[in-house]
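User:
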Amino acid sequence: MSKTSPKRPWRVSIVGEMTLAEVVTDLVTVRHAGGYTFRVPERVLHQFVDYCQQQGYADGSIIKEAVDGFLYSRHLRPSTLRRNELVLRQLAAHADTLGWHAYMPAAATQVRARHQVPYVFTDDEVRRLFATIDSQPMSSFTNKAMVDPVLFRVLYGAGLRISEALHLTVSDVDTPAGTLRIQNSKNGASRTIPITGRLTTTLRQYLAAAHPTPAPEDHVFYSRSPRTPINQATIYVRFRGYLADAGIPHFTGGPHPHSLRHGFAVTNLRRWANDGTDLAVMLPYLACYMGHADLRGTQYYLRLTADAYPEVIAKAQIRFGYVIPTPAADPS
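Assistant: Predicted structure:
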């Protein structure tokens, strides 16, 4: 059982009056206050409340029978079951801080990890790819010649997920400060990241051309209307075309737009290793920048760097070898 946070005395006087629905509402409020969107866990928690009410479980505690019935009485995919276990563990820990007796399920469901090795572009492939993207002719039928050179540079130069880039709004781009605000992260937490002066200039020029009369809620990257972001499937189709034109083979598992995010991480790790920077110190910074939930995802990129550029890691193996993990699943 994980360690719970200290009791909050100011809530003890009212815990006897709290219903399970109110405990859930309190947890959701705490998560939102911490900057998490918490959409999927919130939905699971309300499903658990409905289940407990339908089964007639009394308020004031969360018992093993209720938790096991909700989790294991239905046929769910292992990934869904594992997610629900983790959500109810959060609920149990939170209810405990409010003075409830709460059974905490074990996160025991095993999810088969994907072991597809992600694609890492070579320096030459990056040059060829962007030369191809930049050479697209202007057209009266599509704005991709204006959008794509900037969109793909944001993926590669800031390490964003494609969903994060496509949901950027004009108000999220602060060119005077040289920062991007990411509000639709995979892990639910918002973050603000600095970007290079070169990428800032590129975005400033692009915004002036693509948004002559900008509104804060306009999407930075769009096809027809700034109020609507480009569909991810459209970006994947365009990217496949650019790969073909650049003479870069496409195959199952890659390359794909997410490979540019991989490239951002690997490029920075290569640079730090060549500069003699302590990678163990830099990993937490990279994790925060890329929006990873913990260091495991960032260590994964260190593994990719070791595989793709062994001569770089060899220079630092004695000093940094203890932070190079075994292969893991793609952290995205």
